[in-house]
Amino acid sequence: MSTGWIVLGVIVVLVFLAFSAYNRLVALGQRVGQAFADVDVQLKQRHDLVPNLVETVKGYASHERGTLDDVIKARNSAMSAQGPTQVSAAENQLSGALGRLIALSEAYPDLKANANFQQLASELSDLENKIAASRRFFNNAVQEYNTGIQQMPAALFAGMFGFTKKDFFDLGVSRTEVEAAPQVKF
């Protein structure tokens, strides 16, 4: 009789551990999703700013068609990317193209002095800082989630419940370029 109670007690404890682990992993997974949504909001704001910036530059540097086309192409690619890995790769391309676009202002003093361009470049710089902060929050949430699925006792149940490792919002090979705040000079 007492053996039955011990077995029942062990089963109850295991079920409690499984429910606890599952609920914690669900919460961590939701946090990752929310953090990626925050990054996505910032990226969409940047995507909305790009056409205005391109149009402003086009008025002063219309023969720089290749650079302008690269920015639009990179923006379209970034807008259609799905998931952290694709989004980070596409956003890296967009960041590079935007850097080249901003660099054009050095060659065109009238563009550099244009109030609309100055405002758009300032907004872009602010958005880049917000994106970096959102990206750090997302990567922190992913790190907590990945750690959570590897810690005991959740590690015993994570695979069974379908929890798998999530990818970080990686900056890839251009890490030093992207981590540096955009330099906007007027």
From TrEMBL:
Keywords: Membrane, Transmembrane, Transmembrane helix. Pfam families: LemA. It is found in: Membrane. GO terms for cellular component: membrane. InterPro entries: LemA-like_dom_sf, MamQ_LemA. It is a single-pass membrane protein. It comes from the Bacteria. Belongs to the LemA family. This is LemA family protein. It comes from Bradyrhizobium rifense.
